[in-house]
Specification:
Elements (H helix, E strand, L loop, with lengths): L2 H51 L7 H21 L3 H19 L12 H23 L5 H32 L3 H14 L7 H60 L1
Helix pairs in contact: 1-2, 2-3, 4-5, 5-6, 5-7, 6-7
Length: about 260
């Protein structure tokens, strides 16, 4: 075998190996792209769930705006990997939704915490969002100060959601005229806030429940006092009526004897 033949064979083998490596690298890039797309789609669904499923009272405006911005950034990453008119349209709709929310002066309506299963689901969202915040900090899409502030708020909400549930039960009992049950539920709501009662964020909630509890207790005390007064007045009236009846009987007996 001549040197030329050997050289040609080496070139062919080398070309084949290079082509195989190229195909392998291309497949790896395709798989990596699919993996990134899948990860970004999962993040989209995750952030959309925070925006839609987390009750408004546990989602401050700046936190919600940050979630909107993260979702838009994820859409932009997706569009770089796979340009798609549907994706672009959804991205633009989201940007409009964010703009409307940012300029709106109307407060979003709080969602009643009226079910224990809802509490479990909301707490899961809190835990998931805390993990997402940590991951976002690693990706440098949020600064450390905001991560600390939002995480602190989520810890506060973790207790507040229990208090809100008992506050809902207390109001329901109050409207049904079950005053003692309302008192018990407001006391339980305050108990749920005990671990965070010194936090600034908790002060207004603690004060609200204390005032509502005091109003009901004062009303019950006043009602009890009125019942005692009415009871005493009834007793005095009965005694007076008995005295008048006794006098009437005595006078009637005396007249009968006199006639006799």
């Amino acid at each position: 075998m001549t040197a030329v033949t050997i050289t040609v064979l080496l070139l062919v083998i080398g070309g084949f190996i290079a082509f195989a490596i190229f195909l392998q690298l291309k497949e790896q890039a395709r798989i990596e792209k699919l993996r990134k797309v899948a990860t970004l789609n999962n993040q989209l669904r995750q952030v959309r769930r925070y925006l839609d499923d987390m009750p408004p009272q546990y989602q401050p405006k700046d936190m919600r705006l940050w979630l909107f911005s993260r979702m838009i950034a994820i859409y932009d990453q997706l569009l770089l990997l796979q340009p798609d008119p549907n994706l672009s349209r959804r991205r633009n709709h989201l940007a409009e939704e964010m703009s409307e929310f940012q300029t709106s002066k109307q407060n979003r309506r709080a969602k009643p915490i009226n079910d224990e299963l809802l509490i479990i689901e909301v707490k899961r969202l809190f835990d998931s969002l805390k993990s997402f915040l940590i991951q976002s900090q690693k990706e440098k899409t949020i600064d450390q100060d905001n991560v600390h502030r939002y995480s602190k708020l989520l810890n506060f909400y973790h207790y507040k959601v229990n208090a809100d549930y008992h506050g809902y039960l207390a109001r329901k009992a109050f409207l049904s005229g079950q005053m003692q049950s309302a008192i018990d539920m407001y006391k339980e709501a305050l108990t749920q806030l005990t671990p965070i009662k010194d936090m600034i964020e908790a002060q207004s909630t603690v004060q609200k429940y204390q005032e509502l509890l005091q109003e009901i207790e004062d009303d019950m005390a006043l009602q009890k006092a009125e019942e005692e007064i009415n009871k005493n007045m009834s007793s005095e009236a009965e005694e007076e009526l008995d005295d008048e009846w006794s006098k009437f009987i005595e006078e009637s007996t005396f007249k009968s004897k006199k006639r006799f």
